[in-house]
Amino acid sequence: MNGSLSLRLRVYLSILLCVMAAGMIGLMAIEQLPPLDALYFLIVTIATVGYGDIHPVTPAGKILVMLIIITGVGCFVGVAANSIEAMIEERERQSRIEKLNMIIGIFFSEVGTTVLRQFSLFDTSVGELRSALVVTESWTDADFSRARAVLENHRGDIRSSPAFLEDLHAFLMDHRNFLLALLENPQLIEHDSFTPLLQALFHLAEELMSRETFSDLPGNDLAHLSNDINRVYHLLMIEWITYMQYLRQNYPYLFSLAMRRNPFDSNASVVVR
């Protein structure tokens, strides 16, 4: 639900509740109705049902009911209309998110898993991660939450070397058009974590592309590239574990393949044994 729709719904609902509270108190005081009858009369009036079995008998009561009709009916219609609009918008949002998760799946198939595996091989502190990230079919949401907490606190320690940078540069250049196409997808605006990951990865690709050679880079420049790589590595790990949880909950057959391609599991194999 977007902000303006949510605000409108809250305003209509607040006014409606105030009208109902004031109306009940007024009807009980002016028309001498018991609480249940006052509430019943309010509901049938605001909902425009109007059975006619209860009606105001005093001039003040009639004025109060007219005010309730003027304010309450409009707010009731507003609440109903905005609630329906909110449900439709939520359904559309879920559809967009589903399509975006398909894009994320393609990203990991084409780029993400390979880059993550390559990064993990050069992460000097990856040993503390491996045991926590061997995802299995028995994993629950609690297991994914624990794994995500481990990744949140892990910053990685990838130190750039000319050979590593050369291989990474070649891989990213081969997939440059693919990454550009992802960045141009308007649905990415719906995702708070995947878009920063793509931006960081594309920035890293640009940094590598801007250098003619990696064989004689000074130490400061290697450290700069290492920072960019570790930033991508951290974002990529978080997105990976989130995507794995999504597959576990929604697509068991895709989850099975993703488990067998786990970049942190040294025993992972796509061959089913």
Could you explain how this protein is built, in words?
The mean pLDDT is 86. The two termini are 46 Å apart. This protein has 2 domains: 3-91, Helix Hairpins (Orthogonal Bundle), CATH 1.10.287; 96-260, no CATH class. The longest helix is centred in the first third of the chain and has 63 residues, at 59-121. It has helices spanning 3-30, 35-46, 59-121, 127-130, 141-152, 162-174, 176-183, 194-209, 219-250, 252-260. It has 273 residues and is an all-alpha fold. The chain is built from 10 helices and no strands. It is elongated.
Task: Please give the alpha-carbon distance between the first and last residues.
Answer: 46 Å
Rounded Rg: 30 Å
Order of helices and strands: HHHHHHHHHH
Mean pLDDT: 86
DSSP helix count? 10
Sheet with most strands = none
* Strand elements, count: 0
Question: How would you classify the helix and strand content by structural class?
Answer: mainly alpha
